[in-house]
Amino acid sequence: MFNTTKAGNFTMKKQAILVAIIAGLTLAGCGGGGGGDSSTNTATGGPVGANVNTGSSANTGTSGGSSDTVPSTITLASSIAVDPVTSVPAAQYASTLEEAAIFTALNDLRGAMGIGLLQQSLKLDIAAGNHDFFIVKNELYKDATYMRSTINGILAPHYENPALFGFTGESPADRAVFAQYTGSIAENVTVNTPAGDCAKNLFNTVYHLISLVNSYREVGISVTPGKVCSIVLGHDAANDMKPQLPKAGTVSVTPSAGQTGVEHTFFNQMEVPTPAADIGVGTGVGRPVLVNLYSQGAETLAPTDVGVISYTMTRVSDGAAVDARILAAPGVLSMGATLTSDANISAPGNVVLLPTSPLDAGTAYKVTFVGSVKQGPVGKTWTFTTK
Question: Which of 86, 164, 234, 311 has its CA 20 to 30 A from that of 364?
Fold first, then answer.
């Protein structure tokens, strides 16, 4: 499936790609918040662990049927972000590889949210491929205890031990430097995920999902089926690549409006770090619903820039309320809603509604979010249907 290409004295397993080497420096670590990332950012939230064989996911579906609950008063145009990209060059992954399917699924998800598509980066492919190779070659994916540990302040799925074969950098940022990528990056890793399930499992998470829907512009992907999946997102500062964000006041959501085939169960205990670790043991919880409040004019948000008035889910058939927690970054303002402060969400423009038990199969749900961004009202009501 894979070719090998030399880089210095290191043999990298990757797809058949050739990379032009351009010197540069990347300064962002693993993770990645919502908007406002720049080439000088360090880790800004999102996933800093591995989603370990969750076995459940969300499929992207048809978009449509959303409505603004509260008109936005934010009209400031962005001077540092561009409009969401709606077309990118075809990826160079062979159509039979899981990398190609992930690339398509990720852009389908982002397209349905209206937050812009990602283009393939050969350098990020190398960074992802190097780390994939490292974990597989050293058989680290087999060690569940290791995969949940922290080493030198880095969760083990994102760490590389310099003493082991295939080392290209302790942190995701170091490995991006090795691959000669310049700019901000965010890394997502899954291990022991059944072949073909990497994308849908990552979509059905909390912290990893946040990372996948940030303002980045490029992506690199590497998969060893059934063992490791590595996805690295970024935007290239060396080429003056600006982050992409929707128009001012936009509320971006997933599952998206009108989406069907949405997974009803999220096995939260399999995500590292674990959201709402006190619930879902053995049973899982409901599919997380994400509201992303970053937009042009709100490229960066302090916690006190975001307020939540209400965030609810009901069953469409009878209006029954779904018991759920609202997970928000520390310091996000409660303006009526009961918030659960989650230190693993460090990008305050991402707010998650997490049902405390699995949703019903084949059922339509309505979600309503009402809040504020920089003292301006924002809101959205939409529906989706589980599979």
Answer: 86
Query: Which residue in the block uniquely carries the two structure tokens 């190779």?
Result: 133
Please give the Cα distance from 269 to 272 (Å, whole number).
Answer: 8
Q: Above 70 in pLDDT, residue 140?
A: yes
Per-residue b/e over 20-47, b at no fewer than 16 CB within 10 Å?
eeeebebbbbbbbbbbbbbbebebbbbb
Contacts for 197 with CB less than 8 Å, ≥ 6 apart: 55, 57
pTM: 0.82
**Dihedral in degrees, nearest 10, Cα atoms 135, 141, 146, 149:** 80
Q: Which domains, and CATH codes, for the chain?
A: 3-54+81-86+93-239 (3.40.33.10), 252-385 (2.60.40.1220)
Report H helices in 72-171. Answer: 98-113, 122-137, 144-147
Separation CA 195–CA 374 (nearest Å): 43
Q: Which residue has the tokens 């080439």?
A: 39
Alpha-carbon distance of 109 to 100, in angstroms, equals 14
Name the 3-class secondary structure at 266: strand
The conformation of residue 142, written as its DSSP 8-state character, comes to G
Residue pLDDT, tens place only, 82-123: 999 999 999 999 999 999 999 999 999 999 999 999 999 999
Q: DSSP secondary structure string, 188-199?
A: EEEESPPTT-HH
* Contact in structure between 222 and 175 (CB atoms under 8 Å): no
Task: Name beta bridge partners: 362.
Answer: none
Amino acid identity, position 225: P
Distance from the first to the final alpha carbon of the chain: 33
Question: Are the beta carbons of 37 and 214 closer than 8 angstroms?
Answer: yes
3-state helix, strand, coil in the chain (%, to 5): 20, 30, 55
Cis peptide bond upstream of 273, omega within 30: yes
